[in-house]
Amino acid sequence: MPIPRSPPPTTTKSKSDQIQIFDPPKHPAVAPSYSQISTVPLSPTTKLVTIAGQVGHDYTNPAGAISQSFPEQIRIALRNVETCLAAAGASKRDIISNRQLREEIVTKWFGKDRDGLKPPPDTLIGVESLASTGGKREYLFEIEVTAVVQTETPAEEKARKWNHAKRARSEDGRPNANK
């Protein structure tokens, strides 16, 4: 059964209980064959975030011109990753893996804003070419990331479970038939 695309269908489940597939505002997928982000609940307190390969497409540039500068494309692709992470409620600290498509490894970006954490595992894949339009080679770098986000602290989880159990019992300690 195919997974529905954004917006998720209306159900009785909360959004945190559903698989979500979406694009950030003003950050559409470069091609209509995929979406930028998927989030999958792993537990009531964590979710898996998968971000599709981000390229040097500058969504803030109304002309849509693509720089042919390799360093500039890396800078833009990493900014696009940060945009997608924020849209999914994640940060660089939550990244557990990344995959870079190109001949050069980008490591400095992962060392920043991770509070001393080591860079996540990564895979470097050499490719013949990346996405192009009209047969013209445009994108020189692509990166995809996977993150795990804790949606509540252990203390918040404990309080939520305690409150749920408390609501499920009547004042005399017997199970509440109404719950």
Automatic annotation (TrEMBL):
This is Uncharacterized protein. It comes from Lithohypha guttulata. Gene3D superfamilies: RutC-like. The lineage of its organism: Eukaryota, Fungi, Dikarya, Ascomycota, Pezizomycotina. InterPro entries: RutC-like_sf, YjgF/YER057c/UK114. Residues 1-10 have a biased composition (Pro residues). Residues 1-32, 153-179 are annotated as: Disordered. Residues 168-179 have a biased composition (Basic and acidic residues). Pfam families: Ribonuc_L-PSP (PF01042).
